Amino acid sequence: MSNRSFEDQVEEANNVSVDGWDFSWLDGRAIEERPSWGYQKSMGERMGRATAALDIQTGGGEVLAGIPIVPSICVATESWPPNVAKATKLLNQRGIVVVADEDQPPLPFADESFDLVVSRHPVKAYWDEIARVLQPGGTYYSQHVGPDSVSELFLFFLGPLPDRVDNRTTEIARKGCEAAGLKIVDLRLEELCTEFYDVGAVIYFLRKVIWMVPDFTVEKYMPKLREMHEIIQKEGSFKATTRRFIIEAVKPAQA
Fold first, then answer.
1. Residues above pLDDT 70, as percent of the chain
2. What are phi and psi of 67, to 5 degrees?
């Protein structure tokens, strides 16, 4: 819990840059429990064994930049222009090519181009496209956001959403993956704790993860932010449940 005034927290969090997919600004302001599989390390191990790899929706490239060994061919896609610029600057120095691409099919690559396709928190997985660009015997490895993740936070601001349906379930992912002809090797969901220690952390998070409260602005939600600040001052933090699942699938080798 911060001792800084509500006004100071709001001003700082509303003006700091939210480009890229690096959340280090939240250090000391919020914590998010990490899944047991350790995505960056496990993804990096697979990258070390790959010859041609693709990272879909790389964000600012921060996760991909941390891999120990870069495959001979390594490409990343990203749609948001500020992230494209940031990822290009970060990843080109490691020999990784960044392609600006809308998060819609088709992927701008030939059939069977990659033996490894990865993605961390894809907005949507287009399974047919993933299967198309994978080589026979190739692997898809991804950490997805699970259903109703951090729902306590967006429900606080938006109230009950009776018509809301969250399709980010493991069962829907399984069906889409298998329908595209991929064979699932691993599929696990974990529920994890997230805590925000000041209202500035909440503002930063909602400015960065724009689909959480799509119409969020500090001005529009000032009364709710004051209420959030009071809750944190009283209870020490605002807690929410994060859901993540890992999915690993293989494209069967041709007969």
1. 99
2. -70, 140
pLDDT digits (tens, 9 = 90+) for 31-62: 999 999 999 999 999 999 999 999 999 999 99
Residues 6+ apart with CB under 8 A from 72: 51, 52
What is the H or E stretch that residue 179 is in? helix 170-179
193-203 pLDDT per residue, tens: 999 999 999 99
The helix (H) or strand (E) run that includes residue 236 is none
Place of tokens 């005034």: 5
* Count of positions (residues) in the chain: 255
The full DSSP string for 64-127 is: GGG-SS--SEEEEEE-SHHHHHHHHHHHGGGT-EEEE--SSSPPSS-TT-EEEEEEES-S---H
Average pLDDT over residues 180-209: 97
The pair of three-digit structure tokens given for residue 228, joined into one six-digit string: 């959030």
What residue ranges do the domains of the chain occupy?
6-250
> Position 61: which residue type?
G
Domain 6-250 has CATH 3.30.420.10: no
What are the percentages of helix, strand and coil residues in the chain, rounded to 5? Answer: 35, 25, 40
